[in-house]
Amino acid sequence: MVFLAEQGRKLRNFAKTSFFAAALVYFAYHGVSGERGLLAMAKISKELEEIRTEHQEIQTDREKLQHRVNMMYSYSLDRDLLDEQARKILGHAHKDEVIFYHPNDSIH
Predict the structure, then answer these.
(1) Going by C-beta distance under 8 Å and a sequence separation of 6 or more, which residues neighbour residue 78?
(2) Most buried residue among 32, 37, 65, 72 by CB atoms closer than 10 A?
(3) Nearest Cα to 88, choosing from 102, 75, 77?
(4) For residues 80 and 85, what is the distance between their CA atoms, to the nearest angstrom?
(5) Are 91 and 101 in contact (CB under 8 A)?
(6) Contact 35, 29 (CB under 8 A)
């Protein structure tokens, strides 16, 4: 009877140890490669950096466009810019003029 009691105690200790070891492995695995683990955090950090770079590029483009718009207001009209835009959009030029467009120039 003592033998069976000792075996039962060993079995319970083994079960407890196994349970805690399995729980530790489970949480460690999901802490590293789970949906919100370390690998996911690294991936999200990389995506965030790419989005910040893209945002900065868009912000720079927006500022350039805003500057061009401001130059076309009547209180600060830049006649050269107005002439350039009218020629681009309307396709108008004098007979003796030669116009060269850069391939990266946009109509807007």
Answers:
(1) 71, 72
(2) 37
(3) 102
(4) 9
(5) no
(6) no
Q: Give the amino acid at 62.
A: R
User: What pTM did the predictor assign?
Assistant: 0.52
Question: For every one of its 108 residues, what pLDDT tens digit does the chain have, with 9 covering 90 and above?
Answer: 677 778 888 899 999 999 999 999 999 999 999 888 899 999 999 999 999 999 999 999 999 999 888 877 777 777 787 777 777 788 777 778 777 777 776 555
Mapped onto helix, strand or coil, the DSSP state of residue 91 is coil
Q: Do you know the residue count of the chain?
A: 108
Q: Which residue has the tokens 């910040």?
A: 52
Residue 65 CB partners (closer than 8 Å, separation 6+): 108
